[in-house]
């Protein structure tokens, strides 16, 4: 059974470190050019259709800013 | 399927641990401290021991750890966390007690307290965050700095003739009769994070079973201290720290 996932990022708490990005097995995540109030780029789903909701990104995020959702399709 | 149809409360599979407070971590982007804090919070949450856990924060970057994990804390003088944890555990033997310390705190100024607590077999958990430098004060050499590693106090690299050998304090702790579980882990990728979480859980269970001291070294990155990007620092850690500080269990009895 295939899984479809999505992430929600707490944009003001993200520090743009990119650790989530390199840990996504299907290259879903990118960093924005614009920055948040702290001056950091923000992680976002650049390729949302690829997300399987595996939770790897959220697991490695040092700042606990990613929430992961997943459904069976 | 539209993203809007996926993002619904009933589909949530991972989020911020409720044992973490709402405070924004003061750590630099990508710092391992945040990930390790989160794992401790998750284990405390899963074991349902939030009101039964007392931790001791160190002097170092993680001095303010008490702001982030919503449990009871004491804050020790530099290096003395294991001594303070000994006192706390002996006064409150039914609580889970852990220390959270950097390599400078635990293995330079605090060496005596660490070794003797481990040797006495205090029923505490010791978390050593080894980023191979003094992060808080500007990236000076610590006892655990690698040979040849450039730091603010070894600008030409650590020299054995001058600075001595890097101290494998975790190996030393594994030799002591008082320790029951000694392991070296990391948090740079999802598999490593999950292994570290399992190790923390096991260490907490050891204290409940009065098996002795559990010490978990987490080989960590300090990208600002090392003057690298967060991703570059994790790579440098894998290439340089892991060969000298190999991951895995050193003792499990
Ligand atoms: C008695 C005393 N000596 C020295 C210091 C200065 N000092 C503050 S933090 C620190 C080292 C912290 O390094 P480490 O334990 O490796 O933790 P990190 O900051 O890397 O997480 C030192 C030497 C101090 N605060 N108190
Ligand atoms: S790991 Fe966390 S803080 Fe870092 S870029 Fe990703 S979401 Fe932001
Ligand atoms: S200085 Fe290093 S150890 Fe301290 S918070 Fe920043 S990255 Fe972490």
In words, what does this structure look like?
- The complex is a heterodimer of chains A (73) and B (253).
- Chain A is mainly β and 73 residues long.
- Chain A has a single domain (3-72), classed as Alpha-Beta Plaits, CATH 3.30.70.
- Chain A has helices at 19-23, 56-60, and strands at residues 3-9, 29-35, 41-45, 66-72.
- In chain A, the strands form 2 sheets. Chain A has a two-stranded antiparallel sheet with strand order 1-4.
- Chain B has a single domain (25-252), classed as 3-Layer(aba) Sandwich (Rossmann fold).
- In chain B, helix 2 packs across helix 8 (190-208) and helix 4 crosses helix 5 (111-120).
- Chain B is globular and about 60 Å long.
- Chain B starts with a helix and ends with a strand.
- The interface between A and B is medium-sized, with 34 and 36 residues.
- Strand 4 (66-72) of chain A pairs antiparallel with strand 1 of chain B, so a sheet runs across the interface.
- One iron/sulfur cluster binds next to helix 9 of chain B.
- One iron/sulfur cluster is lined by residues 27-28, 31, 33, 61, 131, 135-136, 222-225 of chain B.
Please outline what is shown here.
The complex is a heterodimer of chains A (73) and B (253). Chain A has helices spanning 19-23, 56-60, and strands at 3-9, 29-35, 41-45, 66-72. Chain A has 73 residues and is mainly beta.
